Amino acid sequence: MLNELRDQIINFITSRMFVLIVIIFFFFGILVNRLFQLQIVNGESYQNNFKLKILKEQSIKSTRGKIFDVNGELLAYDELAYSVTIEDNYDTVGSTKNRELNSNIYHLIQILDEHRTPLSCEFNIVMNKAGQYTYTVEGKTLLRFLADIYGYSQTSDLKLKEKTATPDEIIEYLCSAKKFGIGSYTEGENGKYTFVPLEGYTKEEILKLVTVRYAMSLNSFQKYIATTVATGLDEETVAIIMENRSELQGVDIAEDTQRRYIDEPSLSPILGYTGIISPEELESYNADGGNYERNDMVGRAGIEKEMEKYLQGSKGYRQVYVDNLGKVVEVASESEPAAGNDLYLTIDSKLQSAVYKILEQKLAGIVVSHIRNIRAEEMEEQDASGNILISIDDVYYALFNNGVIDLAHLADKGAGTYERQIQSVYEQKESNVTDALRLELTSTRTPYSGLVKEYQVYESFLVSQLSSSNLGILINDNIDEKDEVYQNWKSETISLSEYLHHAIANEWIDVTKLGIDQQYSDTEEIYNSLVDLMLNNLHGNTSFQRKVFKYMIRDNNISGLQICMVLFEQGAINDDVDMKRQLESGEITPYSFMIEKIRKIEITPAQLALDPCTASCVITDVNTGEVRACVSYPSYDNNRLANTIDSDYYNDLRNDLSNPLYSYATQQKTAPGSTYKIVSALAGVSEGVINLGETIDCIGQYDKVDNPKCWKFPSSHGPLDVSGAIRNSCNFFFYEVGYRLGCDGYGRYKSDTGLDQLNKYADIFGLSDLSGIELSEAEPTMSTEDSVRSAIGQGTNAFTTVQLARYVTTIANSGTCYNISLLDKLVDSEGNVIQDFNPEIRNHVETSDSVWTAIHSGMRGVVEDAAAFRDSGVYAAGKTGTAQQIKSRPNHALFIGYAPYSAPEISIATRIAYGYTSANAAEVARDVFQYYFGLKDPEDVITGEAEIPTSGTISD
Q1: Are strands 816-818 and 627-633 parallel, antiparallel or unpaired?
Q2: Rounded Cα–Cα distance for residues 787 and 753 (Å)
């Protein structure tokens, strides 16, 4: 009875449970079906008369504030532009989604390519002229990029293989089925697709597809967020995309803005440029209270970056209803964006431009004056005399070494007659070199020190390539630098073959990158594969090609005539039929031709990248601390980096030996040379180790510490007071000051004591910290060794040009040390002043008027004695400085000064790195003063041609 009752209960419950389950599944099916129809997005949907509409919030970008110079000249502004965007509104998943999405992106890329519109998405891999993938970043930035690729929040999470991944390996990984599925899809009889990664596209097309997919992946956490693919589209491109829109799911055209700058390269290091916000910037700005989104444009360098929060406007917002394909069907509400604030700088853009040209003219003049029509090997013999000259061979090689001659075009189908001649000789030379290297690596095995210089260069290059991020085969982190064989390699006593065999045995080599099965390969097989990879990698490698050309020129395998004619064939210089005829007929020698092109600056100092090729100059208002010019030579075209980076141009800039992206005014530090002697003079007088009426007798060689010599030695200056020591830049005088500052009350000398005193007064002049300028700036270095030599600006003293500018401004106005500034005022879009910037006073130099008079008098004497200022009409004061950094290169040339002498208006600090003599820097200052004060007609100052030095050498 109980069993029967139990069975009835179970049957009742089971039957009711079954019915309940059926009901649940029925309604669940309806719900699922309805959800698929509704396409719920952002947690909200809206249905009216049974027609689906999805509520979505869109941001409306604001206009970035304009930038003006101190005279109201417009320097930077936004202009209306059209952008093409793509949204991930695909309902499919997995391989089907990849196939459809990649097909649409490829179609879009074809349209953009046809209209020469570059992608605006940023990706840290580009393709070089040899058709190889290469990274555009290195170090910590590269590790951060790799961590993002592999999905790690911390770079420390990267595995060794991921950390050393090559650009090719990254591309392969992102094209794989588990990532973006970029390749060919073949449909089988069963309707399923077979996928082959990387197939069906060129390397360039693959890179573009990966670039767009990677940019979209950064928005993957939010569906229906558009990714900007390209900006600055012309109307024809817009029309074609709109015509094909039905076939381009997720693609749309948006009204946008793009940043524009006036065509003035001298301003680029100051203004910087804008670009799409990086993931790191997005996180950082929003953590500081910003309201940035993935596609926003932000300042990436210069004032654009430093003043981002002032220039960036406030977004507007629009709530819209879209259909399931993302098309707007109704606007629900809208709020207008607010434009960013306009910024006025203290810079005088016309003065800035003039100074840039003055620097370029002087650099060209110095280079021309040191070129000689002799072979490189003959020049090496002359170098022993200390007169560093430039061989014509070095000039020819510079054209190849710094990319003036396009090596890739030599092998192009459209190459000219002389290009083909040079390429033919190169190919034979490359074959000979690789054969010789293979013999050396597999048979001869000569110790590195026993190789001729040319093959030492090639073997060093092989090793550097193995450890580069683009190959990543030699794992630096695995190398034991205390290892005996490694030490022998560094000391050049063993062969490269022995070193690499040892590296393989000790697992310093990543064998997985050699394409062989390590498990079944012995050391010799691995080594042979490594040799093959190294030598094969040389073909088409631009860096290797440039090294080979050096020895082709040295050995006279190619002629100066061929090189000059290639400049015409490649359009590197202006076409001149008559000059080409004269060259080919021998009426003009290749040497004379090159001198003329450099003299006319058709080939610039920056293009040659020979010493000197860089310089900087900073001009300040003496009475306010405002910066009127901050010039770094060479520079770049910031319009080609703004909005959408021109990747080819950016890659060229990165590889340019003159380093145009580096701000020489704010980043380059060198010893100040004798410009530092004003610090020593004030320290000596203020600390009572010398007085204004006292003289020190210069006898040429200082015998109290290490016997350093005055520049006058073997002659001498004789007795000099403070003003006379500054005027004559007497090293002996300031050696004695540095010595006395280091002595205690018992006359015992201690260098550290003297350094403390010198650094105390360097700090008073503002040399101990950043100048105040609103740009990225290198930290100053105050000397930590040898107070005697430090007193003449040697030791380890090192300052930027902007730091020297603050220093000389403080001298010129007799003691007011400003935090110098580029900022004038900030105004809103209606023209109302929001903030009026004024340079802060850092400190005052407390000393007597008589001390300032002595300093100013000495500096006036420098200018009176300088040949550069003779009959110039310039009434100025200043101090020259020459600083040696390395004996094999010319000295740095420096000048600081101010004018007019009696009532200073502006001060100047200029540096010509490796500029031979401070007389050259003084000539730059003279030309700037003449231009600024109208002492010469502008066209007589800015001639557009090389300014040959005329002042000889200043010994200081």
Answers
A1: unpaired
A2: 8
Mean pLDDT, 10 residues at a time, over the chain (956 residues)? 52 52 47 43 42 68 93 96 90 82 96 93 88 90 93 92 93 96 92 92 96 90 78 93 91 92 98 91 90 89 96 86 70 84 98 98 98 83 65 98 96 96 98 97 96 97 92 90 95 97 93 76 89 94 96 96 98 94 96 98 98 98 98 97 90 95 98 98 97 95 94 96 98 98 93 97 98 97 96 97 98 98 95 95 97 98 97 97 93 98 97 97 98 97 96 84
Instruction: Give CA–CA dist 472/669, Å, rounded.
Output: 32
Question: What pLDDT shows up at residue 17?
Answer: 55
Q: What is the SS3 assignment for 663?
A: coil
Measure the CA–CA gap between 71 and 98, rounded to whole angstroms: 55
Strand-strand pairing, 823-827 and 316-322: unpaired
Q: Which of 858, 876, 861 is nearest to 923 (CA)?
A: 876
How large is the C-alpha radius of gyration of the chain? 34
Q: How far is CA 884 from CA 387, 537, 795, 892, in A?
A: 14, 39, 11, 6
Backbone angles phi, psi at 405, to 5 degrees: -95, 125
Q: Which of 93, 322, 109 is nearest to 215 (CA)?
A: 109
| H-helix segments, 440-522 | 453-466, 484-490, 496-505
Give the span between the Cα atoms of 307 and 65, in whole angstroms.
10
The residue behind tokens 């600024």 is 932
Instruction: Assign 3-state DSSP to the chain and report helix, strand, coil percentages, each to 5.
Output: 45, 20, 35
Identity of the residue numbered 650 = Y
Distance CA 226, CA 326 (A): 10
For residue 67, give both structure tokens. Answer: 């930038």
Residue 740: both structure tokens together:
């006395």
pTM of this prediction?
0.89
Question: DSSP letters of 112-138?
Answer: HHHTT-------SEEE-TTS-EEES--
The identity of residue 66, as a single letter, is: K
- The two structure tokens encoding residue 812: 């010129």
- DSSP output for 370-427: HEESS-HHHHHHHGGGT---EEHHHHHHHHHHTTSS-HHHHTSTT--HHHHHHHHHHH
- Checking 219-226 for CB contacts under 8 A at 24+ apart, the result is 219/88, 219/294, 220/88, 223/41, 223/88, 223/89, 224/41, 224/42, 224/56, 224/87, 224/88, 224/89, 224/322, 224/326, 225/87, 225/88, 225/293, 225/294, 226/85, 226/86, 226/87, 226/252, 226/254, 226/295
3 state DSSP class of 189: coil
Q: To 5 degrees, how large is the angle CA 791–CA 795–CA 799?
A: 90
| Class of residue 496 by CB neighbours under 10 A (exposed 0-12, middle 13-18, buried 19+) | buried
Q: For residue 477, what is the DSSP state?
A: G
